Amino acid sequence: MELIVALGLIIFKVALLIAILLLLPLPLTWVERKIAGHIQQRMGPMRVGWHGLLQPVADGIKLLTKEDHIPADADRFLFKLAPILALAPPFVVFVAVPFGETVSVLGNEITLYVSNLNVALLFVFAVIGLEVYGIIFGGWAANSKYAVLGSLRTCAQMISYEIPMGFAVIGVVMMAQSMSLLDIVRAQADVWNVVYQPVGFFVFFVAGLAEAQRIPFDLAEAEGDLGAGFHTEYSGIRFAFFMASEYAIMLLVSVLVVILFFGGWNGVLLPLPPLVWFVLKVAFFVYLFMWLRFTLPRYRYDQLMAIGWKVLLPLSMANIIITGIAFS
Amino acid sequence: MSRARNTIGTWIGWAFFADLANGLALTFGYMFSRSVTMQYPDKEKWLPYPRYRGHHFLKRDEEGEIKCVACELCARICPCYCIEVVPYEDEKGNRRPAKFEIDTARCLFCGLCEDACPADAIALGQQYEFSSFSSRDLVIGRDNLLTKPGKAATGGGVVAARLNTKKDVLVETNEPQGYNWWRNIRRT
User: Fold this and answer.
1) Which is nearest to B149 in space by CA: B124, B125, B117?
2) One domain for residues B125 and B99
3) For B9-17, which contacts have Cβ atoms below 8 Å and span 24 or more sequence positions?
4) What is d(CA A294, CA A32) in angstroms, rounded to the nearest whole number?
């Protein structure tokens, strides 16, 4: 009986997580377009619903009813597989991500995470590394020069930015003496990691921008020079899968930045519930992602590589050494 | 000396991303500045200036008679030959147009017909919403031209308006001037 209840709870949590992650891109697209509009002194979507609130629904209907086109010379199997491969890793990663300690529902303490892995951080990086397969397959299978160029760029970019990203969190792991995200947040109860690890935070955030394929590192889908990059040939619901995966990764990087460097659900000043604090912080970083997108231009390809290997990698190395000396 | 210090200051600024912060501050300021969007045709509409050259209209004199004397000067001067005038003699013995057709599909709205007219009968007014699904509907006859709106008295403002698919973009406002669209533009 105990086992069945525990299993049911896990299934319920996973289902809830999937529902939230699938539905969250809808308001996020609206928010992004509104932010884009207002930064450019426009209005953004205004016509569907109150201030365009139903615009994502209209977009969803449009994407669902569009022709699902596969190019003539495409590798049909890989072409169909790629959107799923791109969408799955960000969803899988959230299994290891905690959103808080516990809440009590009807007298029962329910944990706000699906599982408390003791190697959660390793799991996160391992699974996020798989993300590149969806993009590579998508670009390759479409049999289009723009798609291949976009996916080649993405491959190089993701590999070179995962290294500084991985090094940047080592400082955090050294501080918490654990790779469990839950323990990392507990270790920040008094002082957030960003105070001790500003360089680590900077490297992680910049590498996260590159991981999420956001401006200024969105070389994979540089509209100006590549059409739409790896998803040039995708249409309809498969394209929506790629977009959903992009938003899920953006959300994931925001969540990771909050957990690793900004104290997770630990609040300051205001006595708000932990979950509210967590959501507020994540919302701020999602906003920062969008704000940066409409502020900065895109980096050139060689600049991207130079930043990754000549700036971020040495910085993250130095961060490890200094953290090791200072906190040993 | 001061130049060297400036260079060092710039480098220190770059090291701490002062330029990035400046850019972010600028876009943040723009985010909360007023939008310059004119919500046409849902909520607002731009009123043309008095000298705006929109749809042609024919004028009447004080007795309500059409001013045009069918001299065909407008048809002659028209660079794209889009005006066709056929004269006739009315009961009083005046020369008047029996047919006065303007093909607005071909018209380039140069206003030369207005300049050429000796009787001050034709002018280009303020109407600019006359798109059509058929180019045949764009040939406007004499009686139709007499009902078109004239020159705007004031103009250059944005007024409240509402889209009406049957008629036009309806203007419903008390202030004829409207607000000045340029005041919303942030110039820093």
Assistant:
1) B125
2) yes
3) none
4) 10
Residues B58 and B144 placed together within one structural domain of the fold: yes
Query: How many folded domains does chain B comprise?
Result: 3
Chain A residues in contact with B27 (beta carbon < 8 A): 39, 291, 294-295
pLDDT digits (tens, 9 = 90+) for B36-64: 888 887 788 888 888 889 899 999 988 88
Indicate the burial class of B145 (C-beta count within 10 angstroms; 0-12, 13-18, 19 or more): buried
- B133 with B180, same domain: the answer is no
Residue of A46, A206, A294, A295 best to disrupt the B interface, most CBs of B under 10 A: A295
Residue B75: which domain range? 54-150
Question: Any idea what DSSP says for residue B60?
Answer: B
Least confident of A92-96, B11-15, B103-107: B11-15
Average pLDDT, chain A: 86
Render pLDDT for B71-109 as a digit per residue (tens, 0 to 9): 999 999 999 999 999 999 988 888 999 999 999 999 999
Collapsing DSSP states into helix, strand and coil, what is residue A162? helix
Calculate the alpha carbon distances from A154 to A129, A142, A222, A293, A304 in Å. Answer: 12, 15, 11, 18, 11
Give the nearest partner residue to A296 out of B23, B28, B30, using CB atoms. B23
Whose tokens are 């600024």? That residue is B13
Are B115 and B96 found together in one domain? yes
Q: Where are the domains of chain A?
A: 2-326
- The answer to whether residues B86 and B166 belong to one domain is no
Q: Do A37 and B26 touch (CB under 8 A)?
A: no
Contact in structure between A52 and A115 (CB atoms under 8 Å): no
Instruction: For residues B16 and B78, state if they share a domain.
Output: no
> What CATH number should be reported for the domain holding residue B85?
3.30.70.3270
Residue pLDDT, tens place only, A35-59: 999 888 888 888 888 888 899 899 8
Nearest CA in chain A to B37: A42
User: B122 pairs with which residues across the strands?
Assistant: B58
* B174 — pLDDT class (breaks 50, 70, 90): low
| Domain identity same for B71 and B110 | yes
> Is the ipTM here above 0.95?
no
pLDDT above 70: residue B24: yes
Closest Cβ opposite residue A35 in set B31, B34, B35: B31
Q: Which of A37, A47, A294 faces B27 most closely, judged by CB atoms? A: A294
Residue-level pLDDT at A233 = 82
Give the mean pLDDT of A160-189. Answer: 88
Q: Which residues of A touch B (CB under 8 A)?
A: 35, 37-43, 46-47, 291-292, 294-296
Contacts of residue A46 in chain B, CB cutoff 8 Å? 39, 42
Q: Assess whether B70 and B118 both reside in one domain.
A: yes
Would you call A40 and B42 a contact, using CB atoms and an 8 Å cutoff?
A: no
Nearest CB among B20, B30, B36 relative to A39 is that of B30
